[in-house]
Write a structure and sequence with these properties.
The chain is built from 19 helices and six strands. It is mainly alpha-helical.
Length: 457
């Protein structure tokens, strides 16, 4: 593998690994804030135990997410220095705001929340967690603002071969931000909902701490149903936007090689022959693609390739179609399963003591904890792979963004090193999560201990 392939692989590994923790951090902060608000209003000690229990798991995940994010950022200056020089004046601004505003906000108030038990009024302590939850969402907004510029550049001009920001508010008003950011937030809430639901079901099956985990499951299924449905609605809006903003990505995601002049069929599954520019087979539903994307004229990959060549010059502008196609379908399939599971939980919620009697449903929920992670990862792969060969859409190719002075051997060495580090971090995360999840809500009176254990590991 050359330096470019290794650098792409390294960034994919670090990004996917980091993104395993980010959605749960964002979503679980909201869950804990809701639970603590209920505790403040009702003074029910069961809710205080819920807050402290889920808060401990939140802190473990938060700490690991911070560590993995730091590793990811260093690659911009090492493996992707040409990209950093080209887009740094634009890309650096939202990242700086994220660090100085959002991350400082959440890290400050998470410290107040950890050490503020019995030192602050309950309402002030709950407010601290709400500020943490707001901070995590603001952090996601600024990072996705930077990523959205890569997907759909706005508010810039090219000066001496570099992109310079000309309108900060155009960056904030980027249409891509306002379909990408809600999608990430709803995905985060869904992830947390099924995380809480899976662990709650585990305890309910064993008939332990029934009141605490019945209440936790109620919150989880309601949040999961609302968030997953909003996620699907927003995903539909995002797809319609991409048909206009990044038509090649959506053509690849649907494996449509030739332009349709009438209502287009939707490929449920297809055999992709990229070298031949065709599908070897396809199972289709007539007219459904036009219904989903709101257009009777769907431009195919071959016509889009010709348009890109005419606009940008000779080259191959077709992304890896099979990867884009299948990752999109994995995301949609897992998202659909999550909606069904959440809605069935809401149905059961309307029946008194229904959860305890529904053993099959409770047995499904711990396994369903993996589905949001699969959906999040496949969605992120589709988003980034479908943009290829561009690192900044229409402005800089991925090959132009990689560093020229970092040998392939050095990139391979750091790839191996980072992967080993991630394996160790993942082992620590799993060990601590399982340990404190199984220990139950009576294990420790305060949530600081997981951080001390994580530091020791």
């Amino acid at each position: 593998m050359d330096a470019l392939s290794l650098a792409r692989t390294q960034f994919a590994v670090t990004t996917i690994f980091h993104f395993l923790f980010v959605p749960l951090t964002i979503g679980l902060a909201l869950v804990v804030a809701i639970m603590e608000t209920v505790y403040v209003r009702t003074k029910n000690p069961q809710y205080k135990k819920m807050v402290q229990y889920w808060g401990r798991l939140f802190l473990i995940n938060f700490a690991v997410g911070v560590v993995t994010g730091i590793i990811q950022e260093f690659q911009f200056g090492m493996n992707w220095s040409n990209y950093s020089r080209f887009v740094g004046d634009v890309f650096g601004a939202p990242l700086a705001v994220e660090a100085l505003l959002a991350f400082f906000l959440e890290s400050t108030f998470i410290g107040i929340w950890i050490f503020g038990w019995d030192r602050l009024r309950p309402s002030v302590h709950a407010l601290a967690m709400w500020l943490v939850a707001i901070g995590t969402s603001i952090s996601a907004f600024w990072i996705l603002t930077a990523n959205s510029f890569m997907q759909e550049p706005t508010g810039y001009s090219i000066v001496h071969g570099r992109a310079e920001m000309t309108n900060f508010f155009a960056l904030l008003g980027n249409p891509q931000v306002w379909v990408e950011f809600p999608h990430a937030i709803y995905a985060s809430f869904t992830t947390a909902a099924f995380f809480v639901a899976g662990i709650s079901a585990y305890f309910l099956l064993r008939k332990k701490h029934i009141e605490i985990f019945r209440s936790s499951l109620k919150i989880a299924v309601v949040l999961g149903a609302v968030a997953s449905i909003l996620l699907a609605v927003n995903g539909d809006a995002q797809a319609k936007h991409l048909v206009v903003a990044q038509p090649m990505k959506m053509a690849a995601a649907e494996a449509v090689w030739h332009t349709t002049t009438g209502p287009a069929a939707w490929n449920i599954i297809a055999g992709i022959d990229q070298s031949g520019g065709r599908n070897t087979f396809a199972i289709q539903i007539p007219r459904v693609l036009s219904l989903l994307d709101g257009t009777n004229h769907f431009t195919g990959i071959d016509e889009l390739q010709a348009q890109e060549v005419q606009k940008y010059g000779p080259g191959n502008y077709i992304p890896p179609v099979a990867t884009t196609f299948w990752s999109f379908r994995v995301m949609v399939l897992t998202g659909g399963i999550l909606i069904l599971l959440a809605l069935y939980g809401v149905y059961l919620l309307a029946r008194r003591h229904a959860f305890e009697g529904r053993t099959r449903y409770l047995k499904l929920l711990p396994w369903a904890m993996a589905l949001p992670y699969i959906a999040n990862t496949s969605g992120w792969i589709m988003t980034e792979i479908g943009r290829q060969p561009w690192v900044v859409y229409g402005l800089q190719s991925t090959a132009q963004g990689v560093s020229n002075t970092v040998p392939a051997g050095d990139v391979a060495t750091t790839l191996i090193g980072f992967t080993l580090i991630f394996v160790i971090i993942a082992a620590a995360e799993v060990y601590l999560m399982v340990k404190y999840a199984k220990a139950g809500p009576d294990a420790e009176p305060t949530p600081e201990m997981p951080l001390k254990t994580l530091a020791a590991v």
